[in-house]
Prior knowledge:
The protein is α/β, with parallel strands linked by helices.
Amino acid sequence: MTEASPATIYVVEDDAEVSRVLMRTLDEFGFAAQAFRDGASVLRRLQTERPDLCVIDLGLPDMDGMELVREIARRWGCGMLIITGRGHLVDRIMGLEGGGDDYLVKPFEAREVVARVRSILRRRATGITGVPTLQRRYARFAGWTMDCAANTLRGPDGSEQLLGIAEAQVLRSFLESPHQILTREQLLGSRDVSPFDRSIDVRISRLRRKLEADPQNPQMIKTVYGAGYMFSAVVNWS
Length: 238
């Protein structure tokens, strides 16, 4: 039996010491990691090779890291873990809305990066229920159609919009498990979630603004207080 190839991880970090620690740790845990010092160099490499995931520092010397996150999400759609010294909530929200899958603020433990990388790869590969994401492409619900391969959402009026990677993953999780309570931990990939981690709330708020007639009184994505969230719509797959 042939062993699976190790996941390819691009580390985009201009701090040589941080990059060295990340590269060494990822290598120790069996990943095929490559280091890049700026946005331009990783964009050139992406023209010829698509990694499984990019670890991106927002403080790059040649471009805004947020712009790099959005460009990678738009053109290549690989997983993204954002690492930054910016601790402000608005930066975290912008990173997640721009297409990031998860977010770490410096200083951090290198092994926490490995845990986050594994979590992102796991949920991108299988989702919560273990169904391959491209096995069933179209989900139809309440007049809406979700194309899970292209991350596009078509409304009842025929209008179409491209979802960010993080939003698409949460919606796909709901569509795979309608009428079931999903915890915040499940929606974030079965990792420990701090009571102060609001990333799921941000993503669900954005989805409600897209899907609900009255986002303040949601009928489709319901909060189950003390437990999690539930998607209350009939879903048909094709």
